[in-house]
Amino acid sequence: MNKNYPVYKTTFIDDMRSLVEEAAQNFPDKTALSYKVHPSDTEVVRVSFPQWRDDVRNLGTALIAKGFREKNIALIGENSYLWCCSFFAVMAIGSVLVPIDKDLAPEYIAGIIDATGCVAAIVGKAAQQKCDGILSARPSIQAVYPVDELPQLEAEGAALFAAGDNSYYDYKIDPNRLASIVFTSGTTGKGKGVMLSQTNIGQDMTLGMYNFALTSKTLHVLPPHHTFGSTVNYVGHLSQGVEVYISSGLKHVSDEIREQQPTHLILVPAFLEVMHKKIWDGARKSGKTGLLKTMISVSNGLRKVGIDVRRKLFKSILEPFGGKLEMIICGGAKLDEEIIRTFDAIGITIMNGYGITECAPLISCNRNLYQKAGSVGLPIFDLRVRIDDPDANGEGEICVKGPNVMLGYFNNPEATAEVFDKDGFFHTGDYGRLDDEGWIYITGRKKNLIILSNGKNVYPEELEADIQKIDGVAEVVVYAGESRVNKDKEIIVAEIFPDTDALKALGVAEPQAYFEEQIKKLNAKLPPYKLVKRVKLRDTEFQKNTSRKIIRFTIDKTVD
């Protein structure tokens, strides 16, 4: 817990082409990416850094030959080795990558392609059927490449390169020009196209990696079209020589973690909440909840005197996580401190961080050996952070300025002007504060903020974190209820999706009465203006985007 311990060694990333080249030179004998062709396979395909370099170069050479340099190219589909190669190849030839969520409705995919004027599309297997009709009807699209055809395209590029075609290397990359248009997920409304340069992406990881050290192998489980999935998992990891095992999908993750034995993971809170729940559910089902709590208490006591036996003491708990998992980097939403404490107690360090698509995405992260409870960490190097219009508690909107901050919103100068102030600071839309050492603490989203008629501010995320700790709560969203009868009536509502298995284990026969009693106990600890006045139960889980974030604007907020 030494706040003055040195920064870690990192690799300076000029652009995506140089990243690939330097990684091949720096790690010639290491595995860059690994995966299974089919989830049921026993054999794992392992791609070395030099082979990955060659595949990216060959694909880029072929795309140049077909006239797609400095063009907008859509990348639609599930995570795969060829998705990764396409990500780097498109930017390496000076084209603009438009990664698109394969799970979007067809009209939204069509809208993004029309808006960005993509002239080509690379399509994964999971998206081909949906996209066939969409792409053929788009006037701008000149070519569609299913991922199954990319090896053939790479072979064409390899032949051209062998014959002396050096167009891939001869091109001078301008790292400051537009390189990628990433459409936000729009959990509170319509998404916008975030314009990122190669400098934004590369510098975000160059400067971020000074703050924390990665281990030797990770498992890539996040959606690749989001910056957390692409910038952190691919750009950050591959530049540091880390092996990235590409998951075959959510339903295979538990088996893959156990089989592939990653030494660290990059996750969003939803994954950790499930993992945490499984630990305690397993203890409860075996009647060992009390024993687990005692073991954690004893272990924590031993650690205070310099004795660390966590890997042995909690071996049976760590085995489902592969047995080698040391660290989890988590970002994307608020994470309950109890989860962090539980994992730390059994031998897995959780480094909670903060990022946003507009910042490519990393803004801050806790450090391997220095963390603060409740904080999302220290800002990355060269990023200036300030709090706009702070209240008496020092809380206000978090604003940032640095080389990782986006160029603006695509074809939306009005929206761009709204988020940049006259000093060039980007207004994140997140509320929080800084402590006297510069650590960031997130309070909530500006768009979610409940402003009462008395001027008091209620951050729903804070209440949600407390309610989530109640046994039997699977998911919860807190909002200002809208009364059909009295439009001026202010009602703070907690809408809960119950965990029916947990309620059954607790012997709860009347969920509504049970949760109302639990909320009553919570209210007793809250100031009057924060009291939850209504508990609303739902039969289905909340609608989510592919990052497992609840889409709030789809919730019916009427209460009577």
Distance between the termini: 51 Å
Biggest pleated-sheet summary: 9 strands, mixed
Total strands: the figure is 25
The strands making up the biggest β-sheet line up spatially as 2-1-10-9-11-12-13-14-15
| Helix/strand class | alpha/beta
Unreliable stretches (pLDDT < 50, length at least 5) are none
CATH topology of one domain: GMP Synthetase, Chain A, domain 3
CATH superfamily of one domain: ANL, C-terminal domain
Q: What's the total helix number? A: 19
How would you sum up the global shape? globular
Strand content: 15-25%
Mean pLDDT: 92
General description of the model:
With 560 residues, the chain is of the alpha/beta class. The chain has a domain at 449-554: 2-Layer Sandwich (GMP Synthetase, Chain A, domain 3), CATH 3.30.300.30. The chain has 19 helices and 25 strands. Strands 2-1-10-9-11-12-13-14-15 form a 9-stranded mixed beta sheet, sandwiched between helices. The protein is globular, with a radius of gyration of 24 Å. The protein starts with 15 loop residues before the first helix and ends in a 23-residue tail after the last strand. The model has no long low-confidence stretch (mean pLDDT 92).
